Amino acid sequence: MLSLRNFWRRHKRKILITAGVLGSGYFLCKLYNAHQQKLADLERELARQRANDEIIKAQLQGHFENVQLIADTTSLPHAMQYLRARIAEVLDLSQLTERLQKGKGQPTTLTPSEKFELWDRLKILSFTQMLVSLWAVTMLSLYIKVQVNILGRHLYIDTARGLESSLLLVRSILILLPMFKIYAHIQLSFARTISVSSGSFC
Question: Which InterPro entries match (predicted)?
Answer without folding.
Answer: Peroxin-3 (IPR006966)
